[in-house]
Design a protein that fits this description.
Elements lengths: L25 H8 L23 H7 L15 H6 L16 H11 L15 H6 L1
Length: 133
């Protein structure tokens, strides 16, 4: 699918819905915005002028994440471990050097209202709970 003529601004703290029929380019647009698919023309730019294509994977991961509709979850992984994956771009070699990681993980779980699920295996969650995690 080729997407033409998209001019879109997404603001922090806002919820944005992308709606359209099957095959209309929604997934292609999201993959391009997230850097998973290179733009053949034009660019995806952050407010500071940085472009998705001009950032390293680690730099890009520090700025954005994308939750897909797929529900594949590693067997036995618990909620706290899944939330901790979001800290990976902020750690050094072997996951070291993230002094505020545990605090950030706890805060993220609190904000998503999943603190009580911290030790629950992902495969035991409902669809809505998994989306919040």
């Amino acid at each position: 699918m080729v997407v033409h003529g998209v001019d879109l601004r997404l603001n922090a703290g806002e919820v944005t819905a992308l709606v359209g029929p099957n095959g209309s380019g929604k997934s292609t647009l999201l993959r391009t915005l997230s850097g998973l698919l290179p733009a053949s023309s034009g660019h995806v730019r952050f407010d500071d002028g940085a472009t998705v294509g001009g950032l390293s994977r680690k730099q890009l991961a520090r700025r954005l994440t994308m939750l897909t509709q797929m529900r594949a979850t590693p067997h036995g992984m618990r909620v706290r471990s899944a939330v901790a994956l979001g800290r990976h771009p902020f750690t050094g070699l072997w996951g070291k050097g993230d002094a505020v990681g545990a605090q950030k993980i706890q805060e993220a779980m609190r904000l998503a209202d999943v603190e009580d699920l911290a030790d629950t295996p992902l495969e035991q969650l409902s669809g809505g709970q998994l989306q919040r995690v």
